[in-house]
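Quick one, tokens below:
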């Protein structure tokens, strides 16, 4: 519920940043799923907003095909990815 309230409180055209730690960590799909949920909300409620993923890993560590398809097919305008600064 906290995330929902935070997303609802954001202005349209905001940037939602997801920071993904270097693997291994407890639930590898978790951060990517959270980014997808935020993008889904933005697509329907705040279409000018974007998701920025900062990933400490050189590549997607879990369900790469699934998340890549989601980011390139369903909501390509909402995604930006960048390596996390060291």
């Amino acid at each position: 519920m906290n995330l929902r309230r935070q997303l609802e409180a954001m202005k349209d055209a905001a940037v939602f940043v997801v920071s993904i730690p270097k693997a291994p960590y407890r639930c590898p799909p978790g951060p990517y799923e959270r980014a997808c949920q935020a993008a889904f909300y933005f697509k329907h409620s705040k279409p000018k907003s974007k998701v920025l993923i900062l990933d400490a890993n050189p590549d997607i560590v879990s369900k790469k095909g699934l998340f890549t398809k989601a980011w390139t097919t369903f909501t390509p305008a909402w995604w930006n990815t960048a390596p996390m600064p060291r």
